[in-house]
């Protein structure tokens, strides 16, 4: 029932490509290192190929890696410069794939430029931190649960608890959740780490009390035992600074996309 947070895939890609841009940026002109069927392969192309394949730059690989990757790139050029390739690249499917790849690279370059020029002030970071602390739940909870597939199973377990059966033993015997082996123990958690229905049910209980009605989530039906609670300790700014900066970047990029959408030219 834990929530998982993901950055949007495009944001992850653009952050990576900013680093890639700076790692690949060079003042000198590209130098041709091989010619395959009259098509030049320069060191800039090889550098990008190496970065894509093994996340290193041309200056930070072994001779064996250099030789192997260069040979792979030569093979790629050999195949793509055959007469047959010229015919194939004009087929509708391949043309569409090439178009999408080109658009993707251009879009990523534009996104790179957006993040490269984005300025995040210390005031923005501190304001975002203050808002996050304001929205942080005041209590943390220690709880256990028994997870079953149906409401009827859950009601039967609650009946057993009402008759005096031990929560931990029932969790080991009946629960289908990953915490079953530990007697259903979830240890300490903040409400925002759990799905809302589960957190709401925990907050309504008193310490030492188990739920008299089961709670349904996307994982199944839960019988919850709230064992303890304590005041939450907010994280320091420095411990979550990077997360805050990424959130600001994400929101800025989303606003940028929305502005572009509002001015879309059909």
UniProtKB/TrEMBL annotation:
Q: Which residues form the PpiC domain?
A: 138-228
* Cross-referenced InterPro entries: PPIase_dom_sf, PPIase_PpiC, PrsA_foldase, Trigger_fact/SurA_dom_sf
**Gene Ontology molecular function, alphabetical:** peptidyl-prolyl cis-trans isomerase activity
Which PANTHER family does UniProt cross-reference here? Answer: PEPTIDYL-PROLYL CIS-TRANS ISOMERASE HP_0175-RELATED, PEPTIDYLPROLYL ISOMERASE
* Protein name, as recorded: PpiC domain-containing protein
Organism expressing this protein natively: marine metagenome
Q: What is the lineage of its organism?
A: unclassified sequences, metagenomes, ecological metagenomes
